[in-house]
Design a protein that fits this description.
It contains five helices and 44 strands. The strands form eleven sheets. The chain has a five-stranded antiparallel sheet with strand order 8-7-9-10-11, with helices on one face. Strands 21-27-26-23-24 form a five-stranded mixed sheet, with no helix packed on it. The C terminus is likely disordered.
Length: about 675
């Protein structure tokens, strides 16, 4: 940072990060044009359309390697500059005595018609005198047809008037010995490559006319143009200036340097472009109305020598950016937490602006993933924040539809609408284990408030309360679909499904904050005498059944209103006894009492319905306990007594006995009805 808010590159370690294969800062901190690896491949054979012969550099064909438009039979030479890696060019009109009859093509090859002595002399001079030592040379034949000729049988004679030199012995001096066979064998396809004055890297002559020779020569090509880029500069909310400092090349006449500036808005659209040529120390002002969100700088140099212009530094100045930081109370999101399915998970986090510029309102995206599938996604609005300001947030995550290990991702400003100096502190990820609801709910049924035994007698107008209790406090039992009720009536083989749309069925859902229990009040009017069967199935909100099999209970109904049985128990007794009764029908009698007499008919005790308590349909034991005393609290003598029950409109009598433990008496049984 320098000159207020801004970014700069002025140190070698910074600049070296920009290195490009075409231009790089050396270990001695000098910008040098780079080299590229090249590959020259030549396949030589008798002409076959566009298939043979062929020449290519890095796989790209160059037709001028085989100049059939200039020469159809002869010898071709290629020369590579080892310093630059560039091929020597053969301009229009020809160079070094080579042919080039084209009007505008700089050929990569030097073709010679070796059937002519002057052409052979030019070729000999090129190979022997002009090409410097250390230069790669490739020499090969071109034969348009199998009968084409480049006259090798005449080459040896050239040494008579050529100072003892001919093409054979000049090439043999470089180490290429196989071509001497052409003197007697005639024009055959040949191909050879060598480093002048050093070594041969390939030589070959075909044995068969249709044979193909293949030379592959790797070499390095030095660049005459190089560039480095400082891309995607987006750490400033507003860019004012761009500055640079360049030292010209030591060969300024051969040096051209460019500074290219490109600016884009948030959408990536180019909104600013400027190119400055050969201005070695300069700056440019950016119009304040230009809405630049990202800047690209490029330094480019052309130079015929190896050392190019030297980029010493460049910088960008303007206003800084916001930097939103997301964290929880532990400053990270590495914890693993566990909740029950359906529980609201309270997620607390903090957003802080640690940047140097105000941050506008933005969004935070919350994603819940499991096995790379997004189960839930939600957006949370993050309020504007000044520099160094922070704000805490709470998100209540419902887990009703989650089960097992899930991953929660939080990302602020994912769309990048709020510009920041960096974005790698905008996210947090942590795991949450949601314990699924795997326990079965508990289903019970109560007939007029009690749990009956199989086959018990119940009221013809019972209140049957069915309860379904689940241990999970968060997935409430709120739906009538969780419970199914069926009734099998006497004499029927078809179970009747009891619908919740009827008036005899009331559903009471579970309430939040209480135990998770739903109940149903079933109030049927049973008009047939006999055995009924009730079948109930239940499941919780997670689909767990209340049991492996349905709850089922058989019960008996007698529609006639009467007390069909009344006995005391125990009988005989010494200190206390209770009364066992069987009540049928639908209701309890409005009035009833029990009277106890001596054998002589004297009334000694009368027990009112208030003392006896409510009589319930079915066979039950009274809550009331008689202690064997008369109406005045006096203990009655041992003996046999008679008791009877009075109801509203009828009465029946019977005897009971009071005795000491060592005495036995018998009871005459009787009943009552109304």
């Amino acid at each position: 940072m320098d000159e207020g808010e801004g970014l700069s590159m002025r140190h070698a370690d910074q600049l070296r990060k920009l290195n490009n294969p075409t231009l790089a800062l050396s270990d001695s901190n000098v910008w040098e044009l780079g080299t590229l690896n090249r590959g020259l491949e030549i396949k030589n054979g008798i002409f076959i359309g566009a298939t043979l012969p062929t020449g290519a550099i890095d796989g790209f064909a160059f037709g001028s390697m085989f100049p059939f438009n200039v020469l159809t039979e002869g010898v071709v030479v290629q020369v590579i500059d080892p310093a630059s890696g560039l091929h020597w060019r053969n301009p229009p009109g020809g160079r070094f005595g080579a042919l080039n009859t084209t009007a505008s093509t700089n050929m990569l090859s030097f073709p010679f018609n070796t059937k002519l002595r002057p052409q052979r002399d030019s070729l000999l001079k090129l190979l022997n005198e002009i090409i410097p030592d250390g230069y790669p040379v490739v020499i090969y034949s071109i034969l348009r047809t199998a009968t084409s000729s480049f006259a090798p049988e005449e080459w040896a004679a050239d040494s008579i008037n050529g100072g003892g030199l001919n093409l054979f012995n000049v090439l043999e001096k470089e180490g290429i010995n196989s071509l001497r066979a052409l003197e007697t064998e005639g024009s055959k396809t040949f191909l050879a490559g060598y480093i002048k004055g050093e070594n041969v890297f390939y030589e070959g002559i075909v044995q068969e006319t249709d044979e193909v020779l293949d030379l592959l020569f790797p070499y390095k090509e030095r660049q005459i143009r190089g560039d480095v880029q400082w891309s995607s500069i987006s750490a400033l909310s507003k860019i004012d200036t761009v500055k640079w400092d360049i030292t010209p090349s030591i060969l300024p006449a051969n040096d051209t340097v460019f500074i290219k500036i490109e600016g884009a808005d948030l959408s990536g659209q180019n909104v600013f472009s400027e190119t400055i040529i050969n201005e070695h120390n300069g700056f440019i002002l950016i119009d304040s109305s230009t809405n630049i969100s990202s800047l690209d700088l490029e330094f480019e140099s052309y130079n015929a020598g190896r050392i190019t212009g030297q980029l010493n530094s460049w910088s960008v100045t303007g206003n800084g950016l916001a930097d939103l930081l997301l964290y929880n109370q532990n400053k990270d999101f590495t914890m693993v937490d566990t909740v029950s399915q359906g529980e609201i998970y309270k997620l607390d986090f903090t957003v802080e602006n640690i940047g140097s510029f105000w941050a506008d309102s933005t969004l935070m995206t919350l994603r819940v993933r499991q096995n790379n599938e997004i189960l839930l996604q939600s957006n949370i609005v993050i309020d504007p924040l000044n520099t160094s300001a922070s704000k805490e947030y709470t998100y209540n995550l419902t887990t009703i539809n989650l089960n097992g290990l899930v991953q929660i991702d939080l990302v602020i400003n994912e769309d990048g609408i709020t510009r920041e100096s960096r974005y790698n502190n905008n996210f947090g990820t942590f795991n949450l284990f949601v314990e699924g609801d795997g326990k079965n709910p508990i289903l019970k049924a109560f007939f007029d408030g009690i749990e009956i035994m199989d086959g018990d007698l119940i009221s013809a107008k019972p209140e049957i309360k069915i309860t379904l209790l689940d241990e999970n406090q968060f997935k409430l039992l709120e739906d009538t679909s969780l419970i199914d009720i069926h009734l099998l009536s006497p004499g029927s083989s078809t179970w009747e499904r009891i619908s919740f749309s009827g008036s005899d069925l009331v559903f009471i859902p579970a309430e939040e904050g209480k135990k998770n229990e739903a109940s149903i009040i079933y109030s049927p009017e049973l008009t047939l005498d006999g055995d009924y069967n009730l079948r109930v199935t239940g499941r919780d909100a997670s689909g767990n059944n209340s049991g492996a099999q349905a709850y089922q209970k058989r019960f008996q109904v007698i529609t006639k209103q009467m007390i069909s049985s009344l006995v005391n128990y125990p009988n005989p007794f010494s200190t206390q006894t209770r009364f066992v009764y069987t009540l049928t029908g639908a209701d309890s009698p409005e009035f009833y009492k029990i009277q106890i007499f001596t054998i002589g008919g004297q009334l000694v005790r009368e027990i009112s319905h208030i003392e006896l308590g409510l009589l319930r349909v079915g066979t039950h034991l009274t809550d009331y306990v008689w202690d064997g005393k008369d109406a005045y609290g006096n203990q009655l003598a041992n003996g046999v007594y008679i008791y009877r029950m009075h109801t509203k409109n009828s009465s029946r009598g019977r005897m009971l006995s009071i005795m000491k433990p060592d005495q036995m008496n018998f009871l005459l049984m009787a009943g009552a009805k109304w």
